[in-house]
Amino acid sequence: MEAFTTLTGIAAPLDRSNVDTDAIIPKQFLRKIERTGFGKHLFHEWRYLDYEGTKENPDFILNKEPFRKAKILLARDNFGCGSSREHAPWALADFGFRCIIAPSFADIFYNNCIKNGILLVKLKADDVDELFAVSAFGKSGLIAVDLDKQVVGAASKKFSFEIDPFNKECLLKGLDQVGWTLQFSSKIDDFEATMAKDKPWLK
Questions:
Q1: I want to staple 25 with a disulfide (CB 3.0 to 4.6 A). Which of 10, 55, 91, 193 is the partner?
Q2: Which domain holds residue 134?
Q3: pTM here?
Q4: Angle of helix 107-115 relative to helix 87-95, nearest 10 degrees?
Q5: Phi then psi for 197, rounded to 5 degrees?
């Protein structure tokens, strides 16, 4: 997956609490097993006025400029609650989001996002309120995220955030759990060779 180091851009403000995974990607679009192609169905029932997805809802934030191509999403409490479907981060990533900032996230959703290269930043509710205010300025309201320094910057202010060191390193290196394991392939090969020699009956 793509490494995450720094990201600067506008942030799309989704001013709703308890956004569940069925709202992020409705169940009728879960028929594929590959990770691509879900972005067009992201927030489908909010983005479109019709079931087919041909008529945009002009009031929904992602249908407004300049937020159509935002890579940062601002959200409220308990974002990603509901089922454990990994399609939710697939849809967010396929749409183009690399970072989501909110006061809290559902645990399973949080871990699924990290494994798919999306940085989730937990900030105090008051700090998130300030970022929502910055986002109202559109193109001039830029937000900067620095994973290495664990800082979000906006409007001359900085907000620090915490992240598990292992998750941080995986994101910085662009590694999922399989990629992390493959770093040690030579050691794994050495171990298997030793085992085959010392305990041949195991083969």
A1: 91
A2: 6-175
A3: 0.88
A4: 50
A5: -80, -45
Start-to-end CA distance of the chain, whole Å, equals: 34
pLDDT tens per residue, range 139-181: 889 999 999 999 999 999 999 999 999 999 999 999 877 666 6
Q: For residue 164, with 0-12 CB atoms within 10 Å meaning exposed, 13-18 middle and 19 or more buried, which class applies?
A: exposed
Q: Spell out the alpha helix ranges (H) of the chain.
A: 21-24, 44-47, 87-95, 107-115, 125-135, 165-173, 177-182, 185-198
Cβ distance 173 to 3 under 8 Å? yes
- The 8-class DSSP code of residue 149 comes to T
Q: Which of 108, 103, 149, 133 is nearest to 13 (CA)?
A: 133
Q: Which residues contact 53 (CB under 8 A, 6 or more apart)?
A: 40, 41, 44, 47
Domains: count for the chain: 1
Place of tokens 């995974």: 21
Cα–Cα distance, 164 to 166 (Å, whole number): 6
Q: Give the C-alpha separation, 160 to 124, whole Å.
A: 10
Q: Is residue 199 part of a domain?
A: no
